Amino acid sequence: xxxxxxxxxxxxxxxxxxxxxxxxxxxxxxxxxxxxxxxxxxxxxxxxxxxxxxxxxxxxxxxxxxxxxxxxxxxxxxxxxxxxxxxxxxxxxxxxxxxxxxxxxxxxxxxxxxxxxxxxxxxxxxxxxxxxxxxxxxxxxxxxxxxxxxxxxxxxxxxxxxxxxxxxxxxxxxxxxxxxxxxxxxxxxxxxxxxxxxxxxxxxxxxxxxxxxxxxxxxxxxxxxxxxxxxxxxxxxxxxxxxxxxxxxxxxxxxxxxxxxxxxxxxxxxxxxxxxxxxxxxxxxxxxxxxxxxxxxxxxxxxxxxxxxxxxxxxxxxxxxxxxxxx
Length: 327
Ligand SMILES: Nc1ncnc2c1ncn2[C@@H]1O[C@H](COP(=O)(O)OP(=O)(O)O)[C@@H](O)[C@H]1O
Ligand SMILES: O=c1ccn([C@@H]2O[C@H](COP(=O)(O)OP(=O)(O)O)[C@@H](O)[C@H]2O)c(=O)[nH]1
Fold this sequence. Notes:
52% of the residues lie in helices and 9% in strands. By secondary structure, the chain is an alpha/beta fold. The chain has a domain at 129-323: P-loop containing nucleotide triphosphate hydrolases (Rossmann fold). The protein has a five-stranded parallel sheet with strand order 2-3-1-4-5, with helices on both faces. Helix 2 packs antiparallel against helix 7. 29% of the residues are buried. Residues 141-142, 145, 162-164, 167, 185-186, 189-192, 197, 223-224, 226, 230, 269, 278 line the site of uridine-5'-diphosphate.
């Protein structure tokens, strides 16, 4: 695991702990019981995070200065000149060995060469954007992301991966050490630490590609990234995204849809209190992600207020307009 990845992992936990004042004591307990190293809190069933090693090449060993050498002439003579004297050799050997040890220890303490570190720790995304097309699908809770993804799957043979669905499946997986954490986050409209979600997505993408038997694939990553750290991590270790589909919808409309959905969805967060928290998280944490990608010129914005058919016509027209029929 790279130092940067470890630091990123620790940062997430610190951040979560900081943001944690309003969340349940169960989350606090879970966080405090979690190990610091982010490689250790990776779900056991999930793929390994990209790991790289940093190597430092040994530098040319500088010569010892004169003062570090024991002078042959400094010792007095003992006995007659015909006897072989061993002690000067022993002293020279000891001094030489000491010098080597000092040098090696100094090299160990030296910071690695920045050039080497930059190239050797840069993780390569698991999937190449030349083979794998990733579209992030964003929008407030209840904006209609899942509904529109289903249409896109039919017309454009996308694989649809909902981050929320993957998290709920991990939450329900017997033996998952993240079940309680995910459950608490979802109920409180909080965001599950990115390592868990990114790993679940990478795993699901790899499965879909394996099943399809083709290295080329299109993915709709629904409800993700909801936070900037997730966006950076996913693009760095999984796959750079081509575009973001953003479903823009007023809160009042989304609330009505979610309360209606809550009558049958069985979801722990489709209730008035959780909805309020989810809206807040969306405005404070997820909208900055949309704004970031807007600045990158990667956002297709769709008004999600009309009925599903009308919304889809708009999605299709804008998507094909941007990428063409055969993207
Ligand atoms: N354009 C729309 N007009 C009215 N209802 C919609 C529309 N799109 C989705 N819905 C309904 O609203 C609820 C939330 O939609 P969903 O696709 O699950 O949203 P999200 O995935 O963004 O949370 C669902 O019950 C869905 O049937
Ligand atoms: O990347 C993600 C996606 C979802 N969630 C959690 O899953 C919940 C439900 O997300 P989903 O996309 O299923 O539903 P939506 O809120 O969009 O209706 C969110 O409120 C978060 O608690 C998360 O932590 N990280």
